[in-house]
Every structure is written in structure tokens, then in C-alpha cells.
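#lab-general

N.A. 3:47 PM
ok so I finally got the sequence cleaned up, no stray characters, all 438 residues accounted for. can someone with queue access submit it? mine expired

B.Y. 3:52 PM
send it over

N.A. 3:53 PM
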Amino acid sequence: MMNNSRLLLWRFQRTTSKNTKRIVLEPTRVFSRVMTRVISRDFSTQTKQDILVLNAGSSSLKFNLFSVDMGSNSVSSVLNGAANGLTVTGDVDPVIKIKQGDKTLISDVISSPTHSAALSFIADTIRSHSSENISAVGHRIVHGGTVFPESCIVDDSALEELSQLNSLAPLHNPHNLAGIVAAAETFPGALQVGVFDTGYHATIPEHAHTYALPRQLANKYRKYGFHGTSHKYVVEQAAQFLGKERINAISFHLGNGCSVACIKNNKSIDTTMGYTPLAGLPMGSRSGDIDPSIIIKLLQDEGYTSEEVSDILHNQSGLYGISGSSDSLTVERGYKNGDPGYKLAFNVFAYNVKKFLGAYTAVLNNEVDCIIFTGGIGENSPLLHNLVCEGLHPVTHDNYSRDNQVSDISAAGSSTRVLVVKTNEELAIARECVKLMR
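B.Y. 4:20 PM
back already:
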């Protein structure tokens, strides 16, 4: 079964890159055959269900196997792990760590810095250490366009529609869809559920998601926003921590991919990423916002092709472009050691984060209950917290701990709370699976 899964994943990726018209044909025949046995399945007959969540980021593949009590709605993690360093730049070793509770089962370098290699490794580990009776596989899907404003069961027609969105998130959606096909083959009795990063931002008002383009183009190209599952989860956690039902917040999801969300009454009203995840903040290897005229100059005057420009903006820019490393820990260490390249990269990053803090504070008319830092950088960099909040919201790290679900780093007397909240997109996705299984 695993060999077939690997072959199918490879065929799907090759089909995607070589012929977009054939993107659905091969996977759908297998996928449809598997899913017809699952869609009408009654999951209420068993109290205990196992749900596998796959979260494919631009440079990582996280997974979590959950045991769910359908009666009490309790969700507990059984097996979890992540493969990191899955970067096209190749400047970081691809490492996978898998844990069962507090026990580390595996910590190793995998054979290839690809999502397909990581997924095969994860599936083999689940089979050998835990469960083959997976009821549902929840997938983080970055881009749902306007077609998928909410989570859904992925059948063959949904897969076909999703395949048309790959160009909107080329670093993510192809991995997400390939994961769905491979998971359906690997776990043929499981429901496949798609949870969309764009869904949480469906509440952004028209004046905020409309680009100032000619109307016929503005109707086609608009802001969608991403990291919605993470932003929604940490906002809910922050509201609970503050003892409020609804909050106004500015949420910073800062990892290899970065975005800021402006939250009013728990709903997203603006965000920094746009039509694709390329917009907004500079990131690990993505440029973020630049003057569009630079792209025109590269094409017309510098002789670059559109594919080469896309590669520059997605894979050769951001922290990597400025410093030579896409790894934030490496860049931060270099900053502290006084290296000019690393220092410039970190300062550019922190400056842009702070700029959006000011902008979204204005959008909320200075009525901000809390600022939230989350994601790999946001949760683990006191240096960044200090640089971003300096002169605006005094912070202290006296009570800060990387082990806390929520750390309040606000200094005494601060009118706006500054919180570091550990995101858990996998748990949020598992809960979405439970909703659709009922």
C-alpha cells in the first residue's frame, strides 16, 4: 500500500508541473474509487474515532494523530511530529521528529527535503507504532478561493475544483492536494476533510479586499488572506485567557511564512497576505510587498522570464535574499553577534512587523484588547517582541515561558495586553473534522 501511495504522489506532482489540464485525471480515478466507500459512512456508531491531521507548510510538514471521544467531544493527541527544513534553498537539513506523548520515538534526518518523502515517513510510522483505523484525515489547505469559504469533505468534484487553485498558492496547494490523494490511498477507509487558511478571512469587507485596479480586473483579483486557521485559534485562546467573549486584536503569525491579521469582535477585517501568500511581510524566502515596477523592470530590462521572477520572489528573497539564510534562528543569532547581513535582515523584518502593528491599530481606532504573537518566530523570539513593541507597548519577559499555552508579556500598566500564544492548527483542524463527521 505504501509503495502505491508513493507512486501516486509522484505521479500527481509530475502531472501538476507538466500539464495542468491533466492535474485531476490520474488522481481522481483512484481517489473516487476510494472515497465512494467513505462519504456515506456513519461515524456516530463508534464513540472513539482516530483523526489524522496533516499540515503542510511551505517548509514543513506537521502531523498529529488524535483520539476523539464523539460523546464528550474530547480530543487528545496520540502521536505527533513534524518534518522541518523542507526548503528549496537547501540551506537547512531536513529533520523529522516524532513523539508519542512525552516520549520521542524518532529524531532523524530524512532522505530528501521534500514533502512527499516526509509524508511517506510519517505514514510508515503511524502504521508501525499506532493505528491503521483512521476515521478521517484533516488537511490544511492554504487557498480555497471564493469557492471554499468553509471546511468541507473532499470528494472527487471538490478535488477537481481545488486543483484549479494551485497557481494561487504554488508553494502550498500542490503539496496539500498531493497529500489528500496520498492519504486517501494510504488510509482508504478515512474521510478526507479540507480546512482552508482563507476561510477565516471571508469576513474581510469589500473595501479592504479590493485592489485599486480597473474594475474588470479587481473583480477577478482580490485579497484572500491566509494562516486563517492559526489566527482563528489564537484569537479564541486569547479571548478565553482575557475572560472575554469577543476581542479586538492584532494577530502576528510569524514563521517561515508570515502574516498579520486585524481582528474586530473575533472576526478578521484585514490581513497582510493578499491574492496569494506572497504579499505582506518579508518572510523566510518570500519577498512580501515590493514595488510592482521592479517586476516589470526585471522582465523588460533585465531579461528574466516570468518563471525566473516567480522563483526570485518566492524562493530567493526575504531573510534568505538579504542574509543568505531562511532560518530565523540563524538570522537572530547572527544579529546578536553583530553580523551586518543578519542584522539588516532581522531589522528589515522587525520594522515591517512593527509598521503593520501601527497600521492595524489605526484601523481599529486604537481600540485594541491585545496583541498576539504566534508561529515559530512569534512564539520564540523575545528579541522580536522587544523590537516590535518598543515605544508602543512596554513588555517584560519575566513570566514568559515557551512551555506556556499563553504568556502575558505586558509590562505593568500597559493598556493593551501583549500575549504570546502557542498556535495549534492541528487541533483546530481536528475539531473541524469532528463537526463534519457528525
